[in-house]
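Deviation from plan, reported transparently: FE2/S2 (inorganic) cluster complex.
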Amino acid sequence: MKINLKVWRQKNTNTAGKLVEYQLDNVSEDMSFLEMFDVLNDSLTRKGEDPVTFDHDCREGICGMCSMYINGRAHGPQTGATTCQLHMRSFNDGDTIVVEPWRARAFPVIKDLMVDRSAFDRIIQSGGMYR
Ligand code: FES
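Because the crystal trials were delayed, the predicted structure below was used instead.
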C-alpha cells in the first residue's frame, strides 16, 4: 500500500518544528506502525537525510514508550492499543497519516517525536504512582 506521511520534525527543544511530508510506496499491511517508521528511516538514511527520532523500547505493548499522536489520537485509531501494537492494516491504501509527538507542557519535545519524560520520573520518585 501507498502511505503519505506528515511527520513532526524538530531539531531540538529550542527550535520550531514543522510537519514534513514523506511518501512510502511499499508498505505491507502486516507491518507494525513502528516497522513502517523503520522503513522510512532506512530510506532517509540511505539518502543521507536525518532519520526521524522516536521513542520505543519493548515493541510488545508493555512499556508505553512509543507514545505518538497519530491522526490526532494518542497511539492512533485502535482503541486500547499502543503505537507499537498498531498495524498498517488499520489504514487504507493512499491514506495520509499525521504523526506528532505527545504534546504537553510537562513533556517538551527533545527531537522530532521524542519527548522529555522526566516529569514521570519525578512523579514516581515522589511516590505519586502505583499506590
Ligand atoms: S514500545 Fe513498549 S509499549 Fe510500545
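The longest helix spans residues 33-46. We consider this an acceptable substitute for the interim report.
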